[in-house]
Amino acid sequence: MDDITLRQLILDELEFEPSIDAANIGVAADNGVITLTGHVSTYAEREAAERATRRIKGVKAIAQDIEVRPAGTHKTADDEIAKRAVNTLGWHVTVPKDAVQVKVQNGWVTLNGRVEWQYQKTAAADAIRDLSGVVGVSNMIEVTPRVSSADVKKRIEDAFRRDAEIEAKGININVADGKVTLQGKVKTWSERQAAEHAAWSAPGVHNVEDRLLVGY
Which domains does the chain have, with CATH numbers? Predict the structure, then answer.
C-alpha cells in the first residue's frame, strides 16, 4: 500500500470515530510510519486517535505529536486535578486502595505505586485520563510479580493458542524477573498488538519489550 492511500485511510478512520473531533488532527505517512500532529481538547481524544490509527492495516509505527488543548479559557488548577484523581482512584473497584500515588504538574498526571496485576495498573490510568484538565498521563506504577518466570511463559503461550488472531509459531517468548521479551515475525500490526496484549495480561508481568517485526 502506498503512503497516500494509507494516509487517506487513517483520515477516514479518524473522521469515522465518534469519540474524536478530527478537525484539527494532521496525518503524515512515510513508508508505513505515521506521524499524528495537531491538537485535541482532551487526553482521551489523543489516545483514541492513536488507537484508531493502529487499527489500519499497513501502519508499521506511530509518532504521536498531538497536543492537548483543553477547551475554554478556564484552566483547571493542578491541586484540583490531584483531588479529583485521588477521589476517582479511591472509588475505583479495580484499583487497590491506597496503592497508587498521584502527582500533577501543569496538567500532566504521574502515577506511582505498586500493584499485583497489569490490569490494575492499566485501570488506574484509564480512570484518570478522562478527568477535566488532564493533558497527559505517565503511568509509573510497578507491577510486583508473584509467580515464576516459567509459569508466566506458559500462561502467555496458552493465551497465544487461544487467540485466533495470533500465529504463535512465529513468536519467541523470553521471561526474566517479570520482564517479557517478544521476538519473531507477525503478518499484521493487529496481530502484533494482540500478542503484546496477551503478554501484558499474564500475572506478574511488569514490562513487555515488543521486538516483533510486521510483514510477510
Answer: 3-68 (3.30.1340.30), 78-143 (3.30.1340.30), 149-214 (3.30.1340.30)
